[in-house]
Amino acid sequence: METGVFTDEEVDVAIELVDYVLNNQHQEDYQIQTATSENKEVLGYYCIGPTPLTAGTFDLYWIAVKPAVNNRGIGKQLLSHAEVLIESQGGRLVIAETSSQPKYERTRKFYLNNRYNELARIKDYYKIDDDLVIYGKYVSQSGVSQ
């Protein structure tokens, strides 16, 4: 992952997840989609999956774009695609988790700019001075209490 944001451990987890999806075509826990250039170079990707033991909640596990194509709308297109796919599968709520570290400031702004709300923050979750920040967005009002 060329973003320079993810740790080596996070990259290992992301690669392990991609390998799992590619090698287990009948699994239903994760879906991975890519954005590619005209010459089929992967420019970005996302990974989503239904949240276990929920009705209509999905996790956005990963979304990443190559730094060389930042600020071209690829992340927004990927996120929009994920939301449409989630809604088409009966999903209504998308949850995205990130860190409070300064290097994730762009990520947090990205979610806010795409109409996600900060739903929760757990202080010192990852380590001291590194909170878990949880964002969410309803993609469907079906089943949402008023």
Element string (H = helix, E = strand): HEEEHEHEE
The biggest sheet, with number of strands, parallel, antiparallel or mixed sense and barrel status, is: 6 strands, mixed
| Mean pLDDT metric | 91
- Supply the number of helical segments: 3
* Total discrete domains: 1
Radius of gyration: 15 Å
Helix content: 25-40%
The class by helix and strand makeup works out as: alpha+beta
- The CATH superfamily bears the name Gcn5-related N-acetyltransferase (GNAT)
How does this structure look, described?
- With 146 residues, the chain is of the alpha+beta class.
- It has one domain (8-120): 3-Layer(aba) Sandwich (Aminopeptidase).
- Helix content is 27%, strand content 35%.
- It has 3 helices and 6 strands.
- A 6-stranded mixed beta sheet has the order 1-2-3-4-6-5, with helices on both faces.
- A hairpin with a 5-residue loop joins strand 1 and strand 2 (42-50).
- The longest helix has 16 residues, at 8-23.
List keywords for this structure.
single chain; 146 residues; alpha+beta; Aminopeptidase; six-stranded mixed β-sheet; 3 helices; globular
What would you say about this model in short?
The chain is of the alpha+beta class and 146 residues long. 27% of the residues lie in helices and 35% in strands.
Question: How are the elements arranged and paired?
Answer:
Layout: H1 8-23, E1 31-36, E2 42-50, E3 57-65, H2 74-88, E4 93-99, H3 105-113, E5 117-127, E6 130-138
Parallel strand pairs: 3-4
Antiparallel strand pairs: 1-2, 2-3, 4-6, 5-6
